[in-house]
Amino acid sequence: MSVGLVIVSHSAKLAEGVRELAAQMARDVRIVPAGGTDDGGIGTSLEKISAAIAEADSGEGALLLADLGSAVMTAETAVEFLDDEQRARVRLADAPLVEGAVAAAVAAQSGRALVAVLQEAEAAGHLPAPAGAAASAEAAGDSDDGMEDDLDPADDGVHTGSWELINPAGLHARPAAAVAQAMSDLDAEIRINGVDAKSVMMLMTLGLGQGQTLTLTARGPDAARAVEMMALEVRNGFGEI
Fold first, then answer.
1. Which of 81, 104, 126 corresponds to the end of one domain?
2. Among 33, 58, 108, 127, which residue is least crowded by beta carbons within 10 Å?
3. Res 46: pLDDT
4. What is the DSSP letter of 212?
5. CATH number, position 44
6. Which of 86, 102, 126 lies at the terminal end of a domain, its last residue?
7. Are residues 9 and 61 in the same domain?
8. Between vectors from CA 60 to CA 58 and to CA 61, what angle results, nearest 5°?
9. Which domain holds residue 147?
């Protein structure tokens, strides 16, 4: 079981679309849309949100993400109406709906606890702008994600590898999510082109496309394993070729 997600939106179509996108990254996570009014109009429904919380929470808790101010207020009300036991394991994220949902879904898929899933969702609202192709090539030595970049490849304890991306779409959302999930399971500090390899949103800011170079640097007990896993993924085109 994992933390579940509730997508609260004024639009039923928008909530379902966000659910569909996030589910591509986290097929084992319960992601429940709660969009629109009870009669299918634009707005929010306390009853829909309450039912979605009950469906999403399998015992590990549920994280709510909402699109606009009144949706936030309705979500807060739904949380207040929960009994004390369930309310203790339900949180409302202060995060952008789409980016927060994707980041939270990947974290939940990795088996992280509610607090960690919440942190990943909220961190998605404070990411730098996409690096773009030119910046990506230089990113290995410069980063804005708040981590200290002291992984010197000359250090005997650091393992590194570089590969040219061969799949047509490069490091887009689906492979970025798969990489983040795989790296999260390893006991190592891992960076890809200068950003945290365990954060799907940070990986997506790189904008790495076909023909560009992905450089992984890692330190820790599983550092060598990280390099081996990434080499296999890149050479296999992330399963897309």
1. 126
2. 58
3. 97
4. P
5. 3.40.50.510
6. 126
7. yes
8. 85
9. 132-239
Both 91 and 46 in one domain: the answer is: yes
Say how many domains are in the chain.
2
Q: List Cα–Cα distances, 132 to 70, 128, 135, 177, 204, in angstroms.
A: 35, 11, 6, 19, 10
Write b or e for each residue in 91-112: b if 16 or more Cβ atoms lie within 10 A of its Cβ, otherwise e.
Answer: bbbebbbbbbbbbbbbbbbbbb
Together in a domain, 24 and 73: yes
Q: How far is CA 197 from CA 30, 111, 187, 203, 227, in A?
A: 24, 17, 12, 6, 12
C-alpha radius of gyration, the chain, whole number: 19
Q: Which residues pair with 9 in a beta bridge?
A: 35
Q: What is the mean pLDDT of residues 172-198?
A: 92
Q: Let me know: does 212 contact 165? Beta carbons within 8 Å.
A: yes
55 and 161 inside one domain: no
Ranges of H-type helices in the chain:
12-25, 46-56, 69-80, 84-87, 97-109, 114-123, 132-138, 173-184, 200-205, 223-235
pTM exceeds 0.70: yes
Q: Are residues 98 and 175 in the same domain?
A: no
Catalytically active residues are 10
Q: What is the pLDDT of residues 83-112, one digit of tens each?
A: 999 999 999 999 999 999 999 999 999 899
pLDDT given for residue 156 in this prediction = 67
pLDDT of 203 > 50? The answer is yes
223 vs 218: CA distance, rounded Å: 5
Sheet holding 189-192, edge to edge: 158-164, 213-219, 189-192, 195-196
Residue 88: predicted pLDDT: 96
The enclosing domain of 179 has a CATH number of 3.30.1340.10
Residue 112 structure tokens: 């992280």
Residue 79 CA to its chain's centroid (Å): 23
